[in-house]
Structure formats: C-alpha cells, structure tokens
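Changelog note: in this version the structure field was regenerated for every chain. One regenerated record is shown below for reference.
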Amino acid sequence: MSGAEFPPPSHTTPPPTAEKMAERVRALLAKAESTEFPEEAEALTAKAQELMAKYAIDQLAVDARRGRTRSEVTSRRFDLDITYGSAKSSLLGATGEANRCKVIWSPSSKSATVFGFPEDLDATELLFTSLLTQATAAMLRASPPGSHGSSVRSFRHAFFLAYASRVGERLQEVSRAAVEQGRLEHGDDLLPALVRRDEAVDAAVSQEFPRLRHRRVSMSNGRGVQAGVAAAERADLGGTRITAG
C-alpha cells in the first residue's frame, strides 16, 4: 500500500514513539510518588494515564485504517504480597479495567493473571506499580495511632478496597475522555475497533478460565473505607471482581 492512501494526521507535531511515551510516563509517575503535595501527585498521575490512553487510541486508529493488527492478546502474572493480597488485587483490577485488560484473581496462589494486548498490559503494570506504592504510603500515614492486631488489619484491608474502588472510577473517567477525544479525531470507525479488542480479551479469558465465578468483597472497617476514599481522591493520578474458581 502506498503512503498516499493513508495521509498522516493533520497536526504538525509527530506522535511520540513507544519508548518516548513510556519515558514520559515513568518520569511523571516518579514525580507523583516523590512529591509531598497530593494535588500535584494527582495531576501528575492523571496526566500519565491520559498520555497512555491517548497513545493507545492513536495507535489503534492507525492500525484500524490500515487493516493491521499490531499484536495479539497475551497474559501476564502478578504475584501479590500475601498481606492484603485480595484487596490489592482490587487495585490491580481497577487499573487493568481502565486500560482495557481483564484481571483474574487466584486466591489459592495469591496471584493475578492479567489478560490484554501487550501495550495495554505495559500501561497497567506501570500505573499499578505506582498506585500501589502511593496507596501503601497513604495507608501507613492514615492508620490509627496505637491500634494493633485485627483492628489494624481490618482498617488496612478496607483502606485498599475503598482506594481501589475510587481510583478505578477516576481512571475510567480519564479513559472515557481519551476514547471520546479519539473518536472526534479519528472518526466513528474507532469504536468498532475497540469492541473487537474487548471481545478478543474476553475470548482469551474464557479459553484460559472456562469456569469463573464472581466474588463480592466486603469492607467492615468504616474508618478504613473513609481513609481509603479520601486518599484516592488525592491519588497520584472493588466492588465485584472476577475470581478463578
């Protein structure tokens, strides 16, 4: 096919390469993790997610126009710390969902399998690693002084679940905005391409885990819930998860 059949976008600034984009995202997340100001951290992480989402959308639009599939669905295993592993898997699930991935939590092995296209898996891993670092620091700061034993465990478990739920909502807002902006820039053909990607991920999950059950998680510590939501509102940017039977 000739280049004339597929003219470059109308903007004059060339899109970043994958390496350049990842470099910018890592720099933003590193600043988000190190800053002492929650508002600055929030803006930095939101910008990182926006960059990743826009890059993915732009690449998908180019591939769709050229009738090309850049990669295939694959999976990646995340071994989660046994401490609050179930709650942390909710944060991974929220991050994965915002980046078009599907997360399967296996309680017996304390691990999660994430399905998606390689570039979406990379985005999920980058963001989850940063958010987990920030959530852990926020949780330690928010833990009630003088508490110990089961009260501390229930607080921290509830904190992670509430944090994951609220962060997930915020990440989805950024992702939806990126899709809408992509539709305006690239046309309605983008939406069927996104649907096909979602279907491909679902098919890969069904093939690997033909028998899945939904497990609803609970949060019994009200102070932990409130602290987790508050931290997520400041996040440097739950509910139901799919669990392997």
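Spot check on this record: Residues 16-244 form one domain. The chain has one domain: 16-244.
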